[in-house]
Amino acid sequence: MDDSVVVSPDWLASRLDDPQVRVVDVRDAWEFDGIGHLPGAVNIPFDSYRDESDVDRGTLPGAEAFAALLGDAGISPEDTIVAYDDTHGVFAARFVLTALEYGHDDVRLLDGDYSAWNQSHETTSETPEIEPVEYEADPRSPEESPLVGYDAVADALERDAVFVDTREQEEFEEARLPGAVLFDWREVVNDETRRLKPEAELEALLADHGITPDREIVLYCNTARRISHTYVVLRALGYENVHFYEGSLTEWLANDGEVESGPVASE
Fold first, then answer.
1. Which residues fall within 8 angstroms of residue 264, CB to CB, at 6 or more apart?
2. In terms of CATH, what superfamily is 6-118?
3. Is-same-fold flag (6-118; 147-254)?
4. Fewer CB within 10 A of the end CB, N or C, for the chain?
5. Any residues with CB less than 8 A from the CB of 151 and at least 6 apart, and which?
6. What pLDDT digit, counting tens, does each position of 66-104 carry?
7. How far, in Å, CA of 243 to CA of 134, rounded?
8. CB atoms within 10 A of CB 237
9. What keywords appear on the UniProt entry (predicted)?
10. Whole-prediction pTM value?
11. CATH number of 147-254
């Protein structure tokens, strides 16, 4: 997957001296400063690119606000961005999704997280010097974007789409979209290495849940954080027909959408 949206620690380590490869740490500032970070990384905390008030675009921060974040971090539109966190990549994946939505062509997710990197590569507490730049976002058109809203999701329920619920089993049994399959986003992560499982294993795991490249796939969770990780993984595996329900179950329930509850009988 090193040539795709997901890159390995070794891939990144060999490119840290490239001025156009920019590393983004999305942890809280106290973690970035107090625990340490990857060499040359800039800190753009998760809360800074998530805005609960953006009712039209879910929790995306808005194109101008995101462009300001990147510009203040010294990142240009032509740079390659590699994002990471210390939570198996779930917060960093949200950054990747956001950057893609606002037109950044080359943005990657570090396979693993800070702890995975720290097992075999150096970290630092030095804060890099940042020279701010002007960054202009180029948001995707609705036709280009994987993001879908309530009406599109309701329409997809009438088709043979696979609705993938990336939450935990307890949440799934409390309420879920009709016919959804449970696929906890953490199933793709190896707990020991903190990195993604091998590609063949991922494909078999997804297929066991009926999540295959030939199907139309709709991802949702509660507030579109966890599906960001699953979306990036599917993209890395070459899945193309993947829809990202930004409003997720929060919006679905607010619109009195139909739900199911209770355990699913095993076949």
1. 182
2. Rhodanese-like domain (3.40.250.10)
3. yes
4. C
5. none
6. 999 999 999 999 999 999 999 999 999 999 999 999 999
7. 31
8. 19
9. Repeat
10. 0.95
11. 3.40.250.10
